Amino acid sequence: MDSLVAAGLLVSTLLLFKIKKMSDAVGIIAFQSALLALAAAIMGIKTGLTHLLLAAGLTVAVKTLMIPAILYYTIRKTDARQAVERTSSPHVSLLLATLLLVAGYYVAAHLELPGTEHGQSYLTTSIMLIFLGTFTMIEHKKAIMQAIGLIVIENGLFLVTQSVSYGMPLVVELGIFFDLLVSAAVIAVLSFRIHSTFDSLNTDKMQNLKG
Amino acid sequence: MLEQFLWIIGQGLLVALMAPLLQGVIKKTKARLQNRLGAPILQPYYDIVKYLQKDAVISDQASWLTRATPYLVFCVMLTAGLLVPTLWGQAPLGMAGDLIILVYLFAVARFMTALTALDAGSAFGGMGSSRDMALSAIAEPALFLAAVAVLITGGTSRLGDIMAITVRQDWNVLDPAYGLACLAMLIVVIAETGRIPVDNPDTHLELTMIHEGMLLEYSGRYLGLMVWAAQIKQLLILTLLIDLFFPWGVALTPGVSGLLAAGAVYLGKLLVLGIILALIETAYAKMRLFQVPRLLASSMLLSLLAIMVRIAK
Amino acid sequence: MSVADLAAIWFLAALSWLLIGSITPLLTAGHQPIAKRLAHGSACLGGLCGSLAAILVLVSQTTLVLTAWRIMPGLVWRFQVDALSAFFLLVISVVLVAVAVYSDGYVRKYEQKKNVAYLGALLNGFALSMMAVVTVTSSVTFLIAWEVMSLISFLLVMFEHEKEQVRTAGYIYFVMTHIATAFIILSFLIMFGFTDSIEFMVYQQQLMQLPDGIKNMIFLMCLIGFGTKAGVIPLHIWLPRAHPVAPSSISALMSAVMIKTAIYGLMRILVDFFGGGPAWWGQVLLAAGILSAIWGILLALAENDIKRFLAYSSTENIGIILAGLGTALIFKASEQPVMASLALTAALFHILSHAWFKGLLFMGAGSVLYATHTKNINELGGLIRKMPWTAALFLVGGMALAALPPFSGLISEWLILQSLLHLTFDSSGFWLKIAGALALALLALTGAFAAGGIVKQFGTAFLAMPRTQAAEQATEVPRSMRLGMAILAILLVVGGLWPSGILQLTGSVTNRYFGQLDGTRLLWQPVSTVTGGAADMTVLAGVFILSAVLLFGLLRWKFGRGTVVVDETWNCGTPLTPSMEYTGTSYSHPVLMIFQNMLGINRQVAVEREYPYYPKKISHRLQVQANMEAYLYKPLIAAMLALSQRIRTIQNGNLQNYLAYMVGALVIALIWSR
Predict the structure, then answer these.
(1) Which end of chain C is less enclosed by CB atoms within 10 A, N or C?
(2) What range does the domain containing A13 cover?
(3) Is residue A207 part of a domain?
(4) Domain that holds residue B235
């Protein structure tokens, strides 16, 4: 079950490099977050820690429902064509992502983090998620996709904490969720502004602002 | 103690009273070489006495510096005179000052003179003062270098000690270092005494003057003291040349007869040097101001060569 | 109670007063007169206590160790006053007393314009940080104190920040001082790397055993780091800019004292840690010192700004000090401890007398600025009648700077020249002897030029007729300012006439590191059995006074009182106007023309003709281009800019690129750290 969830997480992230429409990315994020919630719930049931269940619930609420809703709304309002813009072609980016996966695997194998009994299987995946999330931000040009990359990184971090120490104290967890929500909202607002200024969401256009 | 005191007084008087005589000899020789009759040899004495008797006029711009400097410069020169061995192989104040102190005593006299030259606000004074400070600044290292070529034998900067060592070691006159350093020192002597080809002591023309320009605002007793001080300095510089390069004949052991003989030898050396200076002054024309540093630089080069030769031995 | 305890109490009192002085003025910033009194009072008391402590330590030859604060395990803030520290503590404290007294009057200049409470508090903090620099005992605490000192002095330089010139100077100072700090940190890091300790005590025992290459590296870094702070040419460029623009009381502290802390650093590392090092260290220091001295004084001669002149002269004097230190190291390396002591004594003595006369002169320049609101000597003149006290005190300082008798400047110059003479006499090696003679000649040249510079500054600013309205209306400065200057002037006289007292103090430093040298008898006793010199200002001054009295009496007796008529200056029949006076520019013209190839002189003569041969007006401009800056710094700056342009392609403002750097760095770091 654990390895299935982990594989689902990885595949869903890799899909981010194959998509053509931005709204697909929102769907992927929602799906990935749901898987994450599932992983947390499984861990919660296995260990009997209630706060893990609470975290799973919060993940569903914030990451699978609210943030995707905000992002979807933004995309629909701003960008009619919804086309994804990359710095390289989809094949090259997929290749690079695979390379990063290998690097992440290698790193995680040698890092010797003190993984927990039920979290051990997620450790490698979580580090790969962090790498891939950052790579998403590098690869994609549109502002919305930066938000998506950020959420993937956050998912990775969430998973790391889960697998290393069964999550963080609830207050911290709550703070992070709130943080994420605010950043998604800010990115949404900024996207509106960027769109109204440049008539595009491509961050390359912002180069023009440089002195 | 009493002997020490008498010695100090005696050398002070000797230096102060010999200086005008030397000036008179040089002037007379120059005049004779230029086919003039010239003033009597004792004329500098008459001049000084006359100056000292006369009332002084000073500028309404002048400050207390102008009134104080003549006394200061004169007394500094007298004090400096006590640091240079003349007849006896030691200077009366030899334990209180060496060559470096001597040079800096000259420097303080020059400093005060140059400063008061600006006091009246006349441009002549400024001109003389700025030229003197520029040229004498370059003469100072030349003097040190020439002296080092000699001092290196004894490894001391005390004039008395170095004289004794030179006399006893009987330095070979044919030593190339000796000639080089002596020539270098002669150039410095000419520059320090303000004579042609560096400076013209006989004129106040703004194109040529250096030292005389600074005395332009002085008159009466003040001028007398300044002129006398300049003559003492000339004597001291020549004595320094004698002490460093021709010390033979100086009295090393106490005794009246020895001192008298040394006195005669010293007088003779001074007169010969004075005549040589007069000869140089007659034979050469004054240099352009900005050529003088080259002359002094060549003096330094000669001294350096001399030092190298002495070290290499 | 032992002497050491007494000294410790005085030292603590000094630190406490300065601490009080740095805080209380800020609390009473609303009431400026109170804040002013508080600041200057505690600075003065702090200086007095500090001097007492330093003298006690030096005389009793003890070492104070005070543990102040255990910051964390392995890092303890400790004060240690050994002979070397105490000597520099003395330098700082004495000048601080004078500056505090002077500043009490000087800050009236800023009334209604600035809040002097801040100035007073910073003054105290500045003094406190300098005292800390010379007394702390580990590299970390040294760097903290050093950085605090740099920052406070930067703030003080920027005190009149509304002026464009001040801001530029301040930023140049900021950059240069941090380059210096960077090099110093590097050298301390190397030391830490090899000894695994930050304690100076460990360095004293272990650094000697380092491999030669590492030692040399540390030496070069220290030379650049401390050399920049000291203002050694060619690293001096900040000094003539920053020192003149600070408030004059601060310029006095910076020039007289702060740059000496760099010398302290050099001495601590080279002499205390490395015990002298190989001969070539000394040779490098000697060469750098001589270069600095001669170049500094030539640039100083060209200046018409009185404070810039003094600042350049500081680079000259630092050069002289370095020359002394270098000579000491050369002798030490060739196992001639007595000669090494002589040279180190010379350097220490010059540190002290330079602190005094430079402090005095900067305060004198500040007084001129206070009275006339200008530092340009070509706009001054005739001040000796308006400000007789300031003029006399300035003259005393100037004569000491020019190494003229009977002031302590001469004694230190004599000691330096004497040690260079002995380099020629006694050192081994042909070229070393020649170098000694050359250095001697160049230092003599420097001294003579310094005299010329002082004649120019004093003569143009204080003598003859006032050139402007401002100079005409000048009045004597307040009593406290005169008192502050007088303190240092008296010290200069005492140091000149009674040097044996000071030599006793320097003796306890030199005895510790080099050979036994009976300092008190140094001046008239041969240094060793064969060699020797003599300089006894007391006797000479006595003879001088005696001869003056005799002369005066004789003239009076023989020729009567003699009348003096005061009349106008003869000016070829036309009335004399201030514009006919010799200006500062024309005064230094001959020297600049002689050295024009070295300095890079830009001379423009514009003739406005009406008839041929009878020009209506001739204007003459003379500007020193400072070849050193043109040929050394301009290419450096150009190279830096070119490099920055290259680096810009990396830092292009593109978010994705930055993220890529981050991921790259992360991956590499993770792989590397496994």
Answers:
(1) N
(2) 2-199
(3) no
(4) 2-312
Angle between helices C279-302 and C584-594 (to 10 degrees): 140
**pLDDT for residue C532 is more than 60:** no
- Chain A residues within 8 A (CB-CB) of chain C? 87, 100, 103, 106-107, 110-112, 131, 134-135, 137-139, 141, 146, 203-204, 207, 210
Q: How far apart are CA C544 and CA C199, in angstroms?
A: 53
Alpha carbons C227 and C658: distance in angstroms, whole number: 38
Contact B188, B135 (CB under 8 A): no
Q: Quick check: C533 contacting B, CB < 8 Å?
A: yes
Q: How far apart are CA A155 and CA C32, in angstroms?
A: 60
Long-range contacts of residues A66-70, Cβ cutoff 8 Å, at least 24 apart: A66/A181, A66/A184, A67/A29, A67/A33, A67/A151, A67/A180, A67/A181, A67/A184, A68/A26, A68/A27, A68/A29, A68/A30, A68/A33, A70/A184, A70/A185, A70/A188
Domain membership of residue A105 (yes or no) is yes
Q: Say if the Cβ atoms of C559 and B221 lie within 8 Å.
A: yes
Kindly list the residues from chain A whose CB atom is less than 8 angstroms away from the CB atom of residue C670.
Answer: 107, 111
Distance, CA of C304 to CA of C325 (rounded, Å): 31
* Chain C neighbors (3+ CB pairs < 8 Å): A, B
Find the range with the poorest average confidence among A16-30, B27-41, B228-242, C26-40.
A16-30
- Cα B175–B178–B180 angle (5° rounding)? 110
| Count of structural domains within chain A | 1
Residues in chain C: 674
Q: Which residues of C touch B130 (CB under 8 A)?
A: 452, 456, 582, 586-590
Closest-CA residue of chain B to C431: B308
Which is more confident, C103 or C609? C103
Subunits next to A (3 or more Cβ pairs <8 Å) are: C
**Which residues on neighbouring strands pair with residue C623, listed in sequence order?**
C602
The mean of the pLDDT values for chain C is 88
C271's tokens: 């002499």
DSSP-derived secondary structure for C21-57: HHHHHHHTTTSHHHHHHHHHHHHHHHHHHHHHHHHHH
Q: What SS3 class is residue C620?
A: strand
Residues paired with B88 in a beta bridge: B251
Question: What b-and-e string marks burial along A18-38, b requiring 16 or more CB atoms within 10 Å of the CB?
Answer: ebeebbebbebbbbbbbbbbb
Tell me the pairing of strands C64-72 and C75-81: antiparallel
Query: Which of A27, B181, A166 has the alpha carbon at shortest distance from C437?
Result: B181
Which of C287, C281, C275, C465 is CA-nearest to residue C384?
C465
**Rounded to a whole number, what is the distance in Å from the CA of C460 to chain A's nearest CA?**
51
Pairing of strands C564-567, C601-611: unpaired
Domain assignment present for A209 = no
Radius of gyration of chain A, Cα coordinates, nearest whole angstrom: 17
Into how many domains does chain B fold? 1
Q: Please provide the size of chain A in residues.
A: 211
pLDDT for position A210: 61
A141 neighbourhood in chain C, CB within 8 Å: 656
Q: Are A138 and C659 within 8 A, CB to CB? A: yes
| Residue-wise pLDDT tens digits, B130-147 | 999 999 999 999 999 999
Please report, in angstroms and rounded to a whole number, the separation of the first and last CA atoms in chain A: 53
| Rounded Cα gap, residues C404 and C406, in angstroms | 6
Residue A20 within a domain: yes
Contact C660 A146 (CB under 8 A): no
- Give me the residues paired with residue C617 across strands: C608
- Confidence (pLDDT) at C291: 93
Residues A53-62 pLDDT 10s:
888 888 888 8
User: What distance in Å separates the CA atoms of residue C296 and residue C230, rounded to the nearest whole number?
Assistant: 13
Q: The dihedral of CA B239, B241, B243, B249: what is its sign?
A: negative
Q: Which residues pair with B56 in a beta bridge?
A: C564
